[in-house]
């Protein structure tokens, strides 16, 4: 493990994943790896239960960003002491707004994304287990309690989290999307690529991914699919 991302989701972590893999510091473990193979949620449920298997989870990976990994940034730094530590940040207000429009919408609120996710959970045990694992992780963090949170709570909790990471490790590098390649390359002692820094995964893309995958599962669960569409 060469780099541990301590930054929370919705801080350009998918862009970081792509950038690290472009730099040769990959594969990079990210939430999309779990969404692509929901059986991986069992690994993180075991970690929440006090039985982490870090070497097994990260076998073949050179880096990790986003949750579930960043939830355990302290434990991962202990397990991989030579790894560099990167904290991705953005303004608290924009993070709170992005969370409300994306991840928080999976657990509370009134949206097509939540309705379809809830319907999928009733027919897809793997998705149900994934949602439960994530809800527990968010609740334990204090960032997104099970009862819900408004944007003021989210913004304040985001600031506390970032301050805690910097208190925990004095060698953490703080990075924001506007910083681009340079701080990451300096941290890893790698040359700066002569290409633009990748920028992907806005809030609309997140919602579309959840809606499309849930529709696919729901259609497949029907004896005679009727071609549901998200309009």
Question: Care to describe what's here?
Answer:
The protein has 231 residues and is an alpha/beta fold. The protein has a single domain (3-221), classed as Rossmann fold. The protein contains 11 helices and 5 strands, in the order E-H-E-H-H-H-E-H-E-H-H-H-H-E-H-H. A 5-stranded parallel β-sheet has the order 2-3-1-4-5, with helices on both faces. The longest helix has 19 residues, at 203-221. The radius of gyration is 18 Å and the shape is globular. The relative contact order is 0.17. Residues 223-231 have low confidence and may be disordered.
How is the secondary structure organized here?
Blueprint (H helix, E strand, L loop, with lengths): L2 E3 L7 H10 L5 E2 L1 H6 L4 H8 L5 H4 L5 E2 L8 H7 L4 E5 L3 H10 L10 H12 L1 H17 L9 H18 L4 E3 L5 H8 L14 H19 L10
Parallel strand pairs: 1-3, 1-4, 2-3, 4-5
Give the fraction of residues assigned to helices: 40-55%
Low-confidence stretches: 223-231
Radius of gyration: 18 Å
The helix/strand class is alpha/beta
CATH class descriptor name: Alpha Beta
Structural descriptors:
231 residues, alpha/beta, Rossmann fold, 5-stranded parallel beta sheet, 11 helices, disordered C terminus
């Amino acid at each position: 493990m060469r780099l541990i991302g301590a930054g929370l989701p919705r801080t350009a972590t998918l862009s970081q994943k792509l950038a690290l893999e472009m730099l040769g510091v990959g594969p990079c473990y990210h939430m999309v790896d779990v969404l692509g193979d929901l059986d991986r949620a069992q690994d993180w449920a075991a970690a929440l239960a006090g039985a982490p298997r870090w070497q097994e989870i990260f076998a073949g990976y050179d880096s990790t960003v986003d949750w579930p990994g960043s939830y355990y940034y302290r434990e991962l730094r202990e397990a991989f002491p030579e790894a560099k530590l990167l904290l991705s940040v953005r303004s608290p207000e924009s993070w709170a707004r992005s969370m409300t429009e994306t991840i928080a919408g999976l657990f509370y609120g009134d949206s097509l994304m939540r309705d379809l996710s809830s319907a999928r959970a009733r027919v897809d045990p793997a998705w149900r287990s994934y949602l439960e694992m994530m809800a527990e992780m968010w609740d334990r963090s204090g960032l997104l309690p099970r009862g819900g949170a408004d944007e003021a709570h989210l913004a304040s909790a985001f600031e506390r989290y970032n301050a805690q990471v910097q208190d925990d490790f004095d060698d953490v590098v703080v990075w924001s999307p506007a910083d681009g390649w340079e701080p990451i390359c300096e941290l890893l002692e790698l040359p700066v690529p002569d290409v633009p820094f990748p920028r992907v995964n806005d809030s609309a893309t997140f919602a579309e991914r959840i809606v499309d995958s849930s529709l696919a599962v729901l259609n497949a669960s029907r004896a005679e699919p009727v071609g549901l569409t998200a309009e």
